[in-house]
Amino acid sequence: TTSSGVYKAVFVAEPDSSDGTMPPDKVKRPLNAFMLWAKTRRAELQSEKARLQLKVNNAQLSKRLGLEWQALPTATKQAFHNKA
Question: Is the whole-model pTM more than 0.70?
């Protein structure tokens, strides 16, 4: 409750069944700018990794993506913000 004694509404998506899956009619959130960029960049890095026969796990790949995103110029990021 709030300080005035009024209850706040909280909406929590309940799993559809005991296997923990979400209901089929649940609307997914759209991807944010970083996720849109990372989706294509991750595919590029994975193909490069395969070509060079490197052993890089997903955590290392994610860290690299984060560092690359931080280093991108604002104009490049803005293009992805506009798509998001």
Answer: no
